[in-house]
Amino acid sequence: ELWFVLEEMRLFSQTTKDLQAGHSNSETDDLAVNVGLDLLRGIRLDGALSILSGADVPHVVETLRTLASFKHGKPQHRLQFDQSEYELHIAAQFEGFGQRVSFVDTRRRSRYKQRVEFMVGYKWPVECKHPQSEKRIIPNIDAALKKLIERGQPGIICIGLEQALPMTSR
Predict the structure, then answer these.
(1) I want to staple 140 with a disulfide (CB 3.0 to 4.6 A). Which of 79, 112, 129, 149 is the partner?
(2) What is the dihedral of CA 103, 71, 140, 42, to 10 degrees?
(3) β-pair type (156-159, 124-129)
């Protein structure tokens, strides 16, 4: 999935990418949104990696290996890639605003059943959710709360809504 996104960005920037029209205006719009979504994912990923690699963030390499392991064409892997890309984006936002970020080492044993994505300041657990539809917003918030409650300490929940909320035409 990572290599697909990078290739889409390379093709788009190397030449003007012609978008073939769909069978309807609606289908053509959907095709354009999909191209834009891959470009957004690539741009956010590039920005996040620039910040995180320059900050020497603990365990970011393991997180990147996980990101690179998702296969293009598998719907579950695309969803996992979206979640991981959003997590890296949010971690970079915290780091960029002066907060120290450390990813959780998923290879180490943990006393928690569910792991949070990363910690801010080695103290505050952060749980990121990126729901893919409006009906998944509340269940995602509930799942994030469950992880933080298990830890028994205050934490931070970040919810990306750009794919969950319907677009309105003006």
Answers:
(1) 129
(2) 70
(3) parallel
- Determine the 3-state secondary structure of 141 from DSSP: helix
Q: How far is CA 83 from CA 27, 87, 125, in A?
A: 26, 6, 17
Distance CA 118, CA 55 (A): 15
Residue positions counted in the chain? 170
Rounded CA separation 132/80 (Å):
11
pTM above 0.85, yes or no: no
Query: Which tens digit of pLDDT belongs to each residue from 146-156?
Result: 988 888 889 99
- 22 in Cβ contact with 28 (< 8 Å): yes
| 66 burial level (CB within 10 Å; 0-12, 13-18, 19+) | middle
Q: Which of helix, strand or coil describes residue 95?
A: helix
Model confidence over 3-16: pLDDT tens digits? Answer: 888 887 777 766 55
